[in-house]
Structure formats: C-alpha cells, structure tokens
C-alpha cells in the first residue's frame, strides 16, 4: 500500500538541495534517528544529482509504503532519459568506473533497506528508495500529511548556502557521534585484547598443568611397574642371611645333640650377627619402600667395612677369590643403596659362575672429577652379545643357566638404585668374563 505525500520536479542543483531538505524533514517527523535521516537524505540527493547530471530533468515523489509488516518512507525518482545501458554491471559491482557514472546508484543502495531500479532504453529510469520507519511511530493520518505539505509550501525560498551549511552541521554532528562510537570501540577492543591475553595466559597455565600431570602419570606408572620388583626385593635380598641362619641353626642343633657345648657357644655370636644384618636389611628396605626414595637418611659410609659386610653376608664359597682394592673412599650417602648394589652384583657373580672351583671376583674403584666409578669383574662364562641390551631388565638373567634361587630382579634393582642417584650402570663382556660398572656422585665423597 502506498500513500503519496509530496512531489518535487528535479531540474537543477537547487532542486537537489530541496529534495535533500524534504527528505530530512519527512524522516525527522516520522521519528527516524538522525543517522537514518542523513542516510535517507543522502541516498535521495545521490539519485537526484544523477538525474540533473545525466538527464537534465525528472521528478521525485515522497510517500509512505507498507509491506512485510513494516512501514517505510518511500522516495520515487523518475526521469525520461535514454536509460542506463550497463545497469546489470553496475548492480553486480563489475566492469565500470567506481568513481564515475553509476557510483551514486551503488552508494544509494547501501544507505537504504530496500532499493528498486528499472531502466529501459529511451524510456528513462525509475528508482525507489525505502527507509524503514521506527515501530513506535503513531498512525499517520491524511490531515497530518496535508498539514505537512501546507507547511512546506509556506516556507521561504531556499538558500543553497543555508541548506549546505545546515547539512554540514548535521554531518559534523554525525561525525562527532561516529568519533564517540570509535572511542567506545577502541575501549572495547582494548578490553577484548586484555581478555585475550588473560585467556592465552590461562591456556599456557593449563598446558603446563597438563604437562605436569602427564609427567606425574608417567612417574606413577613407573612406580607401579617397579612396585612388584620391590615387593620381591625382600625375598631376594634376605635369602642369603636366611640361608646362613638356617645353616648355623642346623650346625647348632648338631652340636647340642652331640653335647659339643663349646662349639655351640662359638656359633651363637655368628647367629646373632646374621640376625642383626637381616634386621638392618629389612629396616633399610622398608625405609626405601615406605619413606620414599629421597627420604632415606644419609650417613658416613666407609666403603671398606661395607664391602666386608656384604662379602660376609652372601657367604662366599671357599673356592672363590674376592679381591678388594686397598684404597676405598668414605662417602656421605645412603648405606642401604650401596649395600644392595654390591650385594646383587657379587651374588650374581657367584651364583652364575660355571667354574666355581676357580672362581675369581675383583672390585675396582676410580675417582673422577664429577663421578666415582665402581666395577665388579668376574672370570665367569660372560654374557652373550644378544643378551646384553636387556640384561638390566626385570626377570632377565642374561645367561642360559637355570637357577631356582634366582628371581631375575638383581640387576634391575641395581639399575634402579644407580639411576636414582643420577648415575648409570653398564656391562662390559667380550667372550669369557663380565665386568659390571656403575657411577656414583662424587659430590658425596667425604674429604679428609
């Protein structure tokens, strides 16, 4: 539905100014915001100026239109020119001079909600510009429209200078509004950037937490994997003192049965010594498993007496020769660690020797600047090259001898303890004989 309000003939620039003014007046009275008033009036003046420039004369009719449930202010501009030959290219925004002819059409189209144009050769062009009215505008009556037209007719002649000045003032007001909006947009952008920085920082913290969680999960998996090994450690490391206690009690029982009391009294200190060693080993293992690897108390450890205790505890056969270096260090470290390492290495050297009647074991020590190097060398059967890579893995014995008294945990325990101290352990074996080496931190060396 369309209702006409006013018609203006377009013949010169003064008529273009008048069309602009009427656009502003009507859009203002119909309740449009100032920004929309200016957009509509600018679109109208663009099309009217095209009429004056390219045709010479035409007309504009203002009216009200209703469709789609909305009300619009309509400006209908008509000319009787030759038409626009490249209208499709202009509307498609291609193949024309964007700063010349046709630019007014595209500019006007961007300023209104609905834009319609029809152009025929030698029949002229018709353009319809629709600007939506606010929903809160009250009903527009016929008498109201007539009063507006009468008011327009009674206006004095239009001064182009005054109108342009007024338009400039309106543009300045719009520019000020745009400036304020730009300031608000800048503040919002700064806030968004600040929030983005916080988000990035939060993401980095989350990533660090995830990495830490992954590391802890890996550590927990390693602890769980080693839990079984240390559950078996008790039986593995206590087997030797238990066997000694069992042998001493059998001998003590025989002495009592034969009433050799003096010999029995001689065995009692040996039995007590083995029980003390066993108690100390149990205490150390419990401390290792319950208190945590880093919580075991350090103490001054003289390596010479320690090795003597280890050799005594494993009950070296008489046919074996064990050589210990005369110069050995004094360390401030966890005694149970070194006790278990040497106990496992010496026990393996004896246990897996294929010629015990001529068995030889030699312990070496070398002091470096940052690390101490210990090694246990035997003249046993050696370890085959294909077995050496997994020799320190759990349940790997590294040889073909089947031993009922072996759990396969000895070397894995050695590796775990040495790596816990930040050192490394390795095997040297070519043909017959084996040499097991490990490093220990030189920072724990006690200087005289």
From TrEMBL:
InterPro entries, alphabetized: HATPase_C_sf (IPR036890), HATPase_dom (IPR003594), His_kinase_dom (IPR005467), HisK_dim/P_dom (IPR003661), HisK_dim/P_sf (IPR036097), Sensor_HK_Regulatory (IPR050736), Sig_transdc_His_kin-like_C (IPR004358)
Record keywords, A-Z: Coiled coil, Kinase, Phosphoprotein, Transferase, Two-component regulatory system
Single GO MF annotation: phosphorelay sensor kinase activity
Transmembrane segments: none
Span of domain Histidine kinase: 233-444
Enzyme Commission designation: 2.7.13.3
SMART domains: HATPase_c (SM00387), HisKA (SM00388)
Protein name: histidine kinase
Organism: Pontibacter oryzae
């Amino acid at each position: 539905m369309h209702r006409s309000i006013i018609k203006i003939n377009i013949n010169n620039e003064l008529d273009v100014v008048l069309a602009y003014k009427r656009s502003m007046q009507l859009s203002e009275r119909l309740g449009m915001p100032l920004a929309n008033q200016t957009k509509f009036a600018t679109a109208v003046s663009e099309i009217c100026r095209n009429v004056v420039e390219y045709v010479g004369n035409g007309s504009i009719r203002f009216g009200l239109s209703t469709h789609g449930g909305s009300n619009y202010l309509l400006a209908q501009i008509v000319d009787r020119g030759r038409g626009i030959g490249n209208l499709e290219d202009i509307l498609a925004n291609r193949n024309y001079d964007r700063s010349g002819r046709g630019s007014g059409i595209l500019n006007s189209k961007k300023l209104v909600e609905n834009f319609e144009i029809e152009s025929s050769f030698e029949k002229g062009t018709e353009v319809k510009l629709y600007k939506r009215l606010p929903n809160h505008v009250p009903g527009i009556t016929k008498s109201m429209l007539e009063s507006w037209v009468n008011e327009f007719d009674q206006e004095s002649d239009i001064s182009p200078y005054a109108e342009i000045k007024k338009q400039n003032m309106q543009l300045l007001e719009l520019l000020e509004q745009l400036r304020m909006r730009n300031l608000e947009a800048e503040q919002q952008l700064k806030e968004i950037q600040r929030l983005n920085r916080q988000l990035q920082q939060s993401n980095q913290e989350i990533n660090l937490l995830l990495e830490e969680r992954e590391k802890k999960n890996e550590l927990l998996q390693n602890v769980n994997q080693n839990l079984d090994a240390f559950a078996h450690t008790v039986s593995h490391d206590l087997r030797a003192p238990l066997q000694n206690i069992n042998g001493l009690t059998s001998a003590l029982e025989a002495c009592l049965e034969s009433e050799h009391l003096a010999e029995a009294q001689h065995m009692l200190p040996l039995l007590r010594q083995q029980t003390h060693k066993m108690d100390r080993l149990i205490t150390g293992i419990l401390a290792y498993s319950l208190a945590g690897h880093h919580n075991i108390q350090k103490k001054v450890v003289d390596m010479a007496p320690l090795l003597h205790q280890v050799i005594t505890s494993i009950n070296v056969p008489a046919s074996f020769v064990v050589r210990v270096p005369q110069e050995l260090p004094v360390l401030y470290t966890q005694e149970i660690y070194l006790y278990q390492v040497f106990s496992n290495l010496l026990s393996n050297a004896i246990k897996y020797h294929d010629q015990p009647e001529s068995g030889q074991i030699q312990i070496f020590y070398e002091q470096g600047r940052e690390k101490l190097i210990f090694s246990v060398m035997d003249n046993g059967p050696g370890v085959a090259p294909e077995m050496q890579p997994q020799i320190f893995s759990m349940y790997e014995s590294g040889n073909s001898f089947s031993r009922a008294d072996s759990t396969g945990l000895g070397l894995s325990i050695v590796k775990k303890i040495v790596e816990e101290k930040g050192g490394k352990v390795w095997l040297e074996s070519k043909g017959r004989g084996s040499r097991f080496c490990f490093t220990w931190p030189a920072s724990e060396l006690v200087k005289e």
